[in-house]
Amino acid sequence: MAADGHLFGGGIADYVIAAGSGGALVLAADASVWFYNAQTGGTRYETGLTDFNGAVITEVTSDANGAIPQLRSPGPSVRSMWADASGGAGPRRLMIAVDLSDEVAGLVAQVATLEAQLGELSSAPAWVRRDPATGAWPARPETGRWVIWVDTLPLAPSPPAIGGTGMVDGLDMYWGGA
After folding, report:
1. Cβ contacts of residue 64 below 8 Å, gap of 6+?
2. SS (H, E, C) the chain
3. Among 66, 145, 164, 165, which is 20 to 30 Å from 44 by CA?
4. What is the pLDDT of residues 110-145, one digit of tens each?
5. How far apart are CA 57 and CA 151, in angstroms?
6. Rounded Cα–Cα distance for residues 74 and 79 (Å)
7. 90/54 Cα distance (integer angstroms)
8. What is the pLDDT of residue 154?
9. What is the pTM of this model?
10. Which of 59, 121, 114 is nearest to 85 (CA)?
11. Separation between Cα atoms, residue 59 and residue 40, nearest integer Å
């Protein structure tokens, strides 16, 4: 059962349309609709589909008005399917899951949380490290934040100078030794 699959069908555009007499377009009642993972070629979804009530299906049948009933995709990663109402002869038409607004709302909330967390980083310290090859300290980053100076040279730990391009007294921190 694909209870975690996305919901398809039942929308304003979800109808089977066929050519009627004289080339007029008509709604196709009782048409079998197959679903694929690609517009051409690809694989037909013959397992994993369920109807709206959770019963396993391999296809849906349009109702008396040509409407495609609601169904669920094989899983949460299937957000679109290609529908074919001509027994596999094509053409296939793209159907997009109708419940994506719930997923988008969740993503918007996650982005807002991440943005807030990134905002907190503006007050986090900057880090600089003494160059192990030359033993020289880099210039202090141009930031209003405090800086942690990390000395990874185990034999001769030596803090950078205070002032100039070095440490800011009362703001920065030195950590020496490996």
Report:
1. 29, 30
2. CCCCCCEECCCCCCECEEECHHHCEEECCCCEEEEECCCCCCCECCCCCEECCCCECCCEECCCCCECCCEECCCCCCCEEEEECCCCCCCCEEEECCCHHHHHHHHHHHHHHHHHHHHHHHHCCEEEECCCCCCCCCCCCCCCCCEEEEECCCCCCCCCCECCCCECCCCCEEEECC
3. 66
4. 999 888 887 777 777 888 888 888 888 888 888 777
5. 65
6. 10
7. 27
8. 67
9. 0.65
10. 59
11. 18
% of the chain beyond a pLDDT of 70 = 95
Residues 6+ apart with CB under 8 A from 47: 56, 58, 74
Average pLDDT for 138-154: 81
- The encoded tokens of residue 109 equal 């909330």
With tokens 């089977």, the residue in question is: 16
